[in-house]
């Protein structure tokens, strides 16, 4: 059976992306955006597997110690879980752009191996994100793109009509 997957960006799409540092590295910076919980529940109910795909510039370096990434990340996943929302996989590229790694979106290195383990339904699967690079990632996977505005949340009705179109 083919698998429906919603690939989902994190910062600016699910949670607020600070526009100064672009890093959510403290618990008090964690803000889940409007409509996110409802939208993830909709996708879950529509039998989508949820796969998070996020670039996190320099996690593990002095400027962004791993622990400061992990704390708000785990809190976010806990809040989702309390709402009955479970991510099948969470993929993080921790590299800087200049490193030229193969896993930074829009490249698909983060999910290439995972995609050998599932039969991806390219008709219904899609990428949700707020940046051009998320759109290019969708193109590279040959799936559709649902664009959201940075830090504006997810409009449930638009998402509903997107997945039924
Ligand atoms: Mg983003
Ligand atoms: Zn990377």
What does this molecule look like?
It is a single chain. The chain is α/β, with parallel strands linked by helices. It has one domain: HAD superfamily/HAD-like (Rossmann fold, 3-Layer(aba) Sandwich). Helices cover 33% and strands 15% of the residues. It is built from five helices and five strands. Strands 3-2-1-4-5 form a five-stranded parallel β-sheet. The protein is globular. The two termini are 21 Å apart. 30% of the residues are buried. The model has no long low-confidence stretch (mean pLDDT 97). The structure holds magnesium ion and zinc ion (ZN). Magnesium ion binds next to loops.
Secondary structure category = alpha/beta
- Which architecture name does CATH use? 3-Layer(aba) Sandwich
Overall pLDDT: 97
CATH homologous superfamily heading: HAD superfamily/HAD-like
Poorly predicted regions: none
Per the CATH scheme, the topology name is: Rossmann fold
- Sketch the topology as an H/E string, one letter per element: EHEHEHEHEH
Please write the CATH class name: Alpha Beta
Q: How do the strands line up in the largest sheet?
A: 3-2-1-4-5
Supply the key terms:
165 residues; single chain; 5 helices; 15% strand; globular; 5 strands; alpha/beta; binds magnesium ion; binds zinc ion; Rossmann fold
């Amino acid at each position: 059976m083919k698998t429906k997957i919603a690939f989902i960006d994190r910062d600016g799409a699910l949670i607020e992306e600070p526009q100064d540092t672009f890093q959510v590295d403290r618990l008090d910076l964690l803000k889940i955006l409007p409509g996110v919980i409802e939208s993830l529940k909709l996708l879950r109910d529509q039998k989508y597997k949820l796969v998070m795909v996020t670039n996190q510039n320099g996690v593990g370096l002095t400027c962004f110690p791993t622990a400061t990434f992990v704390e708000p990340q785990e809190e976010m996943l806990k809040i989702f879980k309390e709402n009955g929302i479970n991510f099948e996989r969470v993929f993080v590229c921790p590299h800087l752009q200049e490193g030229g790694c193969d896993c930074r979106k829009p490249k698909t290195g983060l999910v290439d191996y995972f995609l050998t383990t599932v039969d991806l339904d390219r008709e219904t699967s899609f990428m949700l994100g707020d940046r051009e690079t998320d759109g290019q990632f969708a193109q590279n996977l040959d799936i559709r793109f649902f664009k959201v505005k940075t830090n504006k949340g997810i409009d449930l009705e638009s998402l509903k009509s997107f997945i039924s179109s």
